[in-house]
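We close this part of the discussion by returning to an individual protein. The amino acid sequence and the backbone structure tokens for this protein are reproduced below:
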Amino acid sequence: MTHDLCMERAMTAITKPRLYTSEAERWVALRARDRDADGHFLYSVATTGVYCHPSCAARPARPENVAFHATRADAERAGFRPCRRCRPDLAPKAEREADMVAQACRMIETAEDVPSLEALAQQAGISPFHFHRVFCRITGVTPKAYADADRTRRVQAGLSRLQSVTHAIYDAGFNSPGRFYAAADGMLGMTPGRYRSGGAGEAIIFATGPCDLGVVLVAQAARGLCAILLGDDADQLQADLHARFPKAAISQSADLGAVLQAVIAHIAHPTQSLGLPLDIRGTAFQRRVWEVLQTIPPGQIRHYSDIAQSIGKPAAVRAVASAIAANKLAVAVPCHRVVAKDGGLAGYRWGLARKQALLAREQG
């Protein structure tokens, strides 16, 4: 995740589509202490001489003592001072938190060594616990996951740009080759040298066979199954596999016969565990979504908004949908268990008929 994306998510979290221009709307917002109304208007209380945000937790005032103001300047010209509880003289809380998280992202991206949670919280001026909670809510990932993703990006860019693996190691902020190589497998999915050559030489074997949902292709790399693809034509599935791993050494293999049969049996009975190692590759955000999918029990469904809520980013429904669509391990990572809010099947990479069949098997 880049700093720009971090800022985009942060600002998405504070988007305010309503304007609260009418007095009736303002009274509704004030009585509900609606945080979405903060930044749109202020209110003052004649008996206290202060003005506040609509969400202020102060005791409700009598209606005859309340006046509304479009701006802070308007309230102060009328003789009111800012409330010390909600601090309307500062930017709205959501904007302050977004700016705090953006500064933390910059600190992570520019530091030679990954900053500790305590250091990030100290810069923000709040406790580590509070900082961790705010960072997760705004970005959808933990500070450590953000730092890991940024370091992965820097390593990948460095391996493509620099002349040696050693230079890329230190350029990405690792203070020793040992620490880098300990993390390289999870970051790259292969050796650094192989990644630097674009994955050329990585061995992937595959097998195809008929199943009761059409044709299935299973592909295996050194760490486990890296693809389970469903379709109607074996040649199309092979082309899809080559497009996903363009520089790998891909070959068909009879050695995958037992694995293929296990996957076919799992498709026929998706309530049973597959029990095979998986090589799950994706961005930090995608892996976070896929991990949640793997916790959905067979026979149950979730909505896209449920998944977004589970990763701590309720506004990221579209990003969640994109991550689900990018899943390349059909059934093993059960993206078929996610449906639209209205109960409709929504999309499915391998066809809605297959999605409906899988759900019927699990729920029947």
Q: What stands out?
A: The first helix runs from residue 3 to 12. The chain has four domains: 1-141, 147-194, 203-268, 284-363. Confidence is low (pLDDT under 50) at residues 1-5, 7-17, 158-192, 195-199.
